């Protein structure tokens, strides 16, 4: 058996974003009913703040969290997918997201951003009796369009999340690589022969990450407060 080494893989801000987004999305799904619509809206605001943070962290965060590190060209993506069934590549090959997983992250960010933004303009006057904070600044046509997007886009999110979970379980069961644990602890076990690549990850300050997240949260709070008139 090859010797393994425990290496640091994911920084605290990325892990905080990941699990906070999971909680916010589940909360939003669970509270999509009249008696809990205010909690549903609050979860949506949290999603928006988290998305803003992840976009910022994709430019100034740790090296393997930056978009320039994991968004690759189609040749690398298809090459990775073609080799995956044969065992030619593993997640351990990449000190971060693999070529396909990187684009899945980008797609998820876009989808949840669209969901959160459309919710700001959506108007529910049937059984939820809720208006988004920006609906007063939009025409009725825009509100109807945002309602349609909000109710349709969520299905795309479910599909993307399902693929994401399937991929994590595939690696856990088939390839015996616990990516879920790595996203919890930030640490990963890799063969010593490739550990040097992981040791080259440049980690940004977690304090900077928390500061950016706080700023994003305050920005969303200010937007909603001003739009609501208070």
Automatic annotation (TrEMBL):
The chain crosses the membrane at residues 12-30, 42-60, 102-122, 156-174, 207-227. Keywords: Cell membrane, Membrane, Transmembrane, Transmembrane helix. Signal peptide: none annotated. It is found in: Cell membrane. One of its GO terms (cellular component) is plasma membrane. It is a multi-pass membrane protein. It comes from the Bacteria. Pfam families: Ni_hydr_CYTB. One of its GO terms (molecular function) is heme binding. One of its GO terms (biological process) is respiratory electron transport chain. Residues 10-186 form the Cytochrome b561 bacterial/Ni-hydrogenase domain. InterPro entries: Cyt_b561_bac/Ni-Hgenase (IPR011577), Di-haem_cyt_TM (IPR016174), Hydrogenase_cytochrome (IPR051542). This is Cytochrome B6. It comes from Thalassospira alkalitolerans.
